[in-house]
Amino acid sequence: MKPIKIFMLLIVLAAMAAGTGMVSGMPFDGFSDVDITDHTGEACFGKAVANAGDLNGDGYTDLVIGTFDGANKAFVYFGGPLFDGTSDVNITDHTGEGNFGESVANAGDLNRDGYADLVIGANTNKAFVYFGGPSFDGLSDVNITDHTDEMGFGESVANAGDLNGDSITDLVIGTGYTNKTFVYFGGSGFDGVDGFSNVTIDDHPTENGFGGSVANAGDLNADGYADLVIGTWGLTRKAFVYFGGPDFDGLSDVNITDHIGEDDFGCSVANAGDLNNDGYADLIIGAWGAAKAFVYFGGPSFDGFSDVNITDHTDEWDLMVYFGVSVANAGDLNNDGYADLVIGTLGHGRSKAYVYYGGPGFDGTSDLSITDHIGAWHFGYAVANAGDLNGDGYTDLVIGGLRGDKKAFVYYGVEYPLKYLPQPTIVTLQGKLTDTAGNPIQTGSLKVTINDTLGNPVWQSIFDDCLFDGVFNIPLGAVQELRLIPGNMYQMVIEIDVDSATFAAADVTFGDNVPAGDVIKFTA
User: Domain range spanning residue 500?
Assistant: First the structure.
């Protein structure tokens, strides 16, 4: 094949009318941008998904995906401008630990070396910490084995934030069976504190499933310290908040018992971000057995009574789709200045996820239903804020499943907050390749890259064997699928690989876009 870069063209996309007015960007559309399918042979791949922080210090957020049911592995995907969903580090150093990878989390910077760290749990009552670094290799640095007698230790793991105010991230690990949770304070020489937790939280020993879900709650009361939330599962139907402070003692400050009538209340807990932008972190708690979720606004006198009850999808229960099995702060997906929420479901071939945009009048009505992978079994079982994987400055979303298809899906955040979708504008490349005698070239492939004005690629694809009698007609996709912003300028680079060493000329026509119908001629 003869590779030839045939031209670099600046294109401008004009603004388009939509709905009741002009639009200047694209809304978050709920269609996955990257489908992660490289480990479909691993049992329950996608059971756990998390933003891993920046493990290798390259300036891009990374992603970690865990497994379950005997695979005993986890996989790290480094972020970058052309994030493609192919794992960069396969973590297989503890395949002998049953269900290693059932819980995964960004551990913050536990050893204070400037790199994000990773924590992975296993149901052999252990957890493992992986320190980030420029050559992140997927070999554990600290094996936390001080509570192997606690059944279910490692079932839930989380970055606890800075609970004791020493400016170093802390770690929390739950059990779910022995009704305990353990806190490990970070430090410059973090080693699991010689394998022993700093605070044992066992103040609710009679609450079944206590510790089955744990999370950094943000700073709910705005006192400058991170707070902790611990949920339960089963018939307990409670959650407990622990305010951080210099003498963090592991005694709950607020017992959330206002929805003990809702089945499985507390099965999922998360920091919701600041949904109403009042300066306080908010909290979300799921109740998948009731197909509901509940939001608690932070404030100086956080009282543990829900402010917004999310009940707009209780009909899912009738379809055996368990809304609320997973909850997460989605970041600011639509870039309107408010944190957003994502809530997942668990169902058999009917699973979905729902996005709720934050705002001053947050009312718990979903703004977007993510149904593009509804046929994937248990799609939505795991949801997470993925950070900014592709480095475009906007928060991304990752959704995984428990069983079935063994995939995960990434959804990129967008540039502008919009309520209206632009009219479809298709970018099509049409043209003909000939040799020096004027005969059509029969075999070849095209690589099309679209860059922003700084030269950063925003889209790329390769079209193999796209010629027929020398002619190619390639619909690249709608503008919103290409993530192009109307009114902005882009650079399109087309590279052709052809068999003929006597490639002579080509005509390329842009169809249905701006400049519509223009023909560009070039020779090799």
Answer: 2-23+420-523
